[in-house]
Amino acid sequence: MNFDNIKSALENEDHAPHVPESLAILKKSEMPILRIRKTMKGEIITQLLCIVIFFVAPSFMKLHQFPRAVYYIFMFLTALMTLGYVTKMIWFLKKTESVQSSTKETILLFIHDIQLTLEVYKTAIISGSILLPISITALLLGSTNFDENLFQKWFLLDISVTGIISLIFGYLITTFFIYIITIKWADNLYVRHIDKLKNVLNSLNE
Amino acid sequence: MELTEKEFLQKIVTHKGIIYKVIRIYFENHNDREDLFQEIILQTWKSLASFKGNSQFSTWLYRIALNTAIVFFKKEKKRNDTIRNERLQPISMQDDTSEKETQLIHFYKAVYQLDKIEKAIILQYIDGLSGEEISKNLGLSPVNTRVKLNRTKKKLQDIIKQQGYEF
C-alpha cells in the first residue's frame, strides 16, 4: 500500500470549514466531561435554591420550639453536606480541562475526574437525603395545629415497640429507594460517558 | 502563550489544514466534521494558557486536535454500528477519476471503519511522524505502538481489498 500517494492527496485536499470570527459563536461543547460539567452547573444552582427555600420555609409556618430547633439543626447538616459537594463541584469545574497531555493521560484524567466527582455526588446526595426525612417530619408534626409533644415523642422514640419497628422499616425502605434512585439517576447521567471513555482506553491498551 | 482572541483565530486560520486532516479522518458526515472542527478550536483556546512553547504551535495543535477527536462522541456510535452492519460494497468510479483520487476515496471508505485509536495511529503515520512521536502523543510504549501500527496497516489493507481494490 502506497501511503505516500495518500499523503500527497490528503495534503492537496483543502475543504477546511470556515474559521469563525469570534469564539462566542461556536457551538457548546460536546465533550463528555463538559456535558457533565454542564449538568452539574444546573444541579449546583438547583441545590443552592433548595437550601434557601428550605431555610425560609419555617418562617411561613407556625411551629413549636422543639421541632423548629430540630428542623434547623438537621437542615443545617444537610446544607453543610450539600455545600461540601457544591464546593467540590466548583473545584471540579475550575480544574483545567486539559486535552494537551498524551491521549492515554487525557483519557485517564477524564475518567478519574468524573469517577471522583460521581462518588462525592452520590455520597452527598444519599447522606443529605437520609437526613431530610427528619426535617420534613419536624415540619409536618411540629405544626402548632398538633399537640406540642407529638413530634418530641416521635423524635425521642417515646412510642410503642411496634411504632419503633415500623419507623425503622419505613426509614430503611425510604433510604433504600433514595439510594436506588440516586444511583440509577447518576449512572444514567454520568456513567455512560465513563463507559465510552473506558472503551477508548481499552482499545488503546489492547 | 498569551494571545488575544483575534490573534488566536488568525493562528487557527493559518493552521486549519492540520485540523481539517483530523476531522476528515474521524467523520464522514459534513455536520459532524463541522462540530468537531469547532470543538477543536474551543479546546485549543481553553488549553492555550498552558502552552509553554516547548514545541511548535502546529505540533501542539495536532495533539490537541487528535485528543479532542478521540474523546468526542457525538452521534458516532450509531453511525459506526450501521457501517459495521453493512456489507462492504465495491465502490464504483467515474471514468475521469484520477488514480490518486480513487486511492483517496478507497482510503477514506476504509478508514471510517477503524476505531478512534487506529485512526489516530494511521493519520500520524501518514503524516510522517516517527514511532517515537506517535507513542509519545498517544502515551503508549514504542513496542505497543509498533504492534498497533502494523495491525492497523494490515486491517486497512484488508478492508480496501474487500472493497475490490488494491494499491
List keywords for this structure.
heterodimer, A: 206 residues, mainly alpha, 76% helix, elongated, B: 167 residues
* Interface with most residues: A-B, 46 and 63 residues
What overall geometry of chain A do the principal axes of the alpha carbons give? elongated
Residue-averaged pLDDT of chain B, rounded? 84
Task: Classify the helix fraction of chain A into a percent range.
Answer: over 70%
Note poorly predicted spans of chain A. Answer: none
Which structural class do the helices and strands of chain A define? mainly alpha
Residue runs with pLDDT of under 50 for 5 or more positions of chain B: 75-88
Rg from Cα of chain A? 25 Å
Helix content of chain B: 55-70%
* Total helical segments of chain A: 6
Distance N to C terminus of chain A: 25 Å
Counting H and I runs of at least 4 residues, what is the number of helices of chain B? Answer: 9
Shape, per Cα inertia axes of chain B: globular
Q: What proportion strand of chain B? A: under 5%
Number of strands of chain A: 0
Mean of residue pLDDT values of chain A: 82
Q: Which structural class should the secondary elements of chain B be placed in?
A: mainly alpha
The multimeric state of the shown protein is heterodimer
